[in-house]
Amino acid sequence: MQAGTKKSQTQALQGRVLVTGGAGFIGSALVWALNRHGIEDILVVDRLGSDEKWRNLVPLAYADYMDADELLERMRGDDARLAGVTGVFHLGACSATTERDASYLARNNYDYTKECCRWALSAGARFVYASSAATYGDGERGMSDECDLATLRPLNMYGYSKHMFDAWALRQGLLERIVGLKYFNIYGPNEDHKGDMRSLVHKAFHEIKQTGAMRLFQSHRSDYAHGEQVRDFLYVKDAVEMTIHLMRADGAAGLYNVGSGVATSWNQLARALFAAMGREARIEYMPMPEALRGKYQYRTQADTRRLRDSGWSAPATPVEQAVRDYVVRHLEPDRRLGDDARGEVARDAEARA
Description:
This protein is α/β, with parallel strands linked by helices. The chain contains 12 helices and 13 strands. The chain has a 7-stranded parallel β-sheet with strand order 3-2-1-4-5-6-11, with helices on both faces. A two-stranded parallel ribbon has the order 7-10. Helix 6 (200-211) packs across helix 8.
């Protein structure tokens, strides 16, 4: 660890906090979690565009908003709006695994991240950024955050654009000073604007409402029955607490898997959703599109030992409990994080008692 890193970690959330992608799924959930930690001096950065993610910001407390393109221009100058930033959560990215424009992904997920990282380090701010479990490819080489990055083979350009920055940061010697978060399958409130990139829970909730059934991809491998492909599912409320922990944790540097550490089948997730909705399970299996078959992960499971070694000790919320919370507190009443702040605080206090 280089001199000065510990100081920046312990003070990372004592000044202004910058959150890129702050109106998006994980980003807005992070702002919500920071508010619950008593932090409101937050500069939210995003591209609001024409979708509905602006609604994620409505219940949240933050000091300022800036467009993502404007941020780069202000970083290149001496801008007062960036004064006092002590921590940068860089979560903004194109997260579409089906995006075909490789040049766009390289600019948005690689070049932009390099500029944010350089600025944060020059400003003495702690830098925590979103990588992805998609960097691991099919997982046949394992999913350890201590692996040799040169051995990884991402299956799509989104995963490769994230891997590009991880590898660059390693070559530059920066992974001793910054934190990269390899998020696994995150699901939960505030994701409804993501279109096809929404979690299965969100998609299937509405499908079940309309048809009474939900569909899963068939398996095209003999060693996995239909619906028995497995994922490491992590509730977004857990993911953002892990993210804040790694911003604060003394000695935390490098790449960390952010997952539950548990492999859960699609069938198990589906049964949890039907149970949360009070319905009998009706699961149908459909052929996987040819274009996806060679790029499909049949098993993901985070090795979370580095996360635990950093001081994180809380268990991940079990899928059944998390899905029920998502359905009852958010999907059924159509509430975003923070919409029912008083009720959430009261229920959480009751649960802790």
